[in-house]
Amino acid sequence: MKESEITDLVDGVVSGDRKAIAQAITLVESKKASDVTLSEKLLESILTADGSSIRIGISGPPGVGKSTFIESIGQLMVQDGNKLAVLAVDPSSSISGGSILGDKTRMEYLSRDEQVFIRPSPSGKNLGGVNRSTRESIAIVEAAGFNVIIVETVGVGQSQTEVFDMTDVFIVLLSPGGGDQLQGIKRGIIELADILVVNKSDGDLKSFSRNTVLDYKNALKLLKPRTKDWSVPVIACSSLEKIGIDECWESIQNFQKLVTTNGHLQHNRNNQQKKWLLKETRQGLLDALEKNEAIQDELRHIQANIATERGSIKTKAKGVVESFLGKLGNKK
């Protein structure tokens, strides 16, 4: 893509053109140096969100039914007159780097709805449950007029909570009767949840689901509330039988009203922007380090002689960093 085409692409995004939206997201996901420069111009040109959107993060372990849950609750959202964008992050293979990107196929009804935009993206090397450019993708779909944005993470564990730092409402899906029910209460992903949903609460799993809901309700009493005046609901839900879906959507809207009224929404988004700035700064330094041929040669030399040269790895790494910073200083 040429720089002269960015204006047309921005116009296409703002007008809601689906092809332009997809192209814009592809551009911000690209790692090519020329595309990175163009994506920066794109992001500078699109309108800043006015704060009226709802950003929803949905996380949970593999196989808990995140895509099916989104398919069900997404239909409710659209019926209420909303425009829905789903950013689904699929795990990338650590060996081949490839991703299946099958989430869209599991959202049969939503994928046919004109008021819905679904974008599957690979997680790449990012370990937080999202991909490196998910924040930029959120900005793009908001500029395109989508007022409800769902970010579906890869199947994650307790420590993979990056989606929490880019959304307004954080929902964690749980499986009924899935082993140690209170394992998640340890200071991790459950502590950050605004809404807990015990999914697949149907058939033979109904009794397990009731016990799981009670277990989590009792355990949450031991945790300090993260948001003032909000008690985290634990909802039994069946995405297939549409049980509990209404309650989930109502809880999302109630939470959004609360944090908008008490100012927590804007405060939270400001903090997210600050964290994003630090993350991008760190990533920029890492990228510069990887592109510096002299430093890469130095690293390769150390690696080749690592078995014979004495000294701690920490000391060697510190030397590489100091060498890199010295080269940056010499460029001034």
Can I get a quick summary?
The protein has 332 residues and is of the alpha/beta class. 46% of the residues lie in helices and 11% in strands.
Write structural notes for this entry:
With 332 residues, this protein is of the alpha/beta class. Helices cover 46% and strands 11% of the residues. It contains eleven helices and seven strands. It has a seven-stranded parallel sheet, with helices on both faces. Strand 6, helix 7 (206-220) and strand 7 (234-236) form a beta-alpha-beta unit. Helix 2 (18-29) runs antiparallel to helix 5 (134-143).
In the CATH classification, which architecture of the largest domain applies? 3-Layer(aba) Sandwich
Physical arrangement of strands within the biggest beta sheet: 3-2-4-1-5-6-7
Output the radius of gyration: 22 Å
Point out poorly predicted stretches. Answer: 92-100
**Total helical elements:** 11
What is the rounded distance between the termini?
32 Å
What is the residue-averaged pLDDT?
A: 85
Helix fraction bin: 40-55%
State the order of secondary-structure elements, H for helix, E for strand: HHHEHEEHEEHEHEHHHH
| Fold-level CATH name of the largest domain | Rossmann fold
Number of strands: 7
Strand content: 5-15%
Integer count of domains: 3
> What's the CATH H-level superfamily name of the largest domain?
P-loop containing nucleotide triphosphate hydrolases
Biggest sheet architecture: 7 strands, parallel
Q: Quick one: overall form?
A: globular
CATH class group of the largest domain: Alpha Beta
The SS-based structural class is alpha/beta
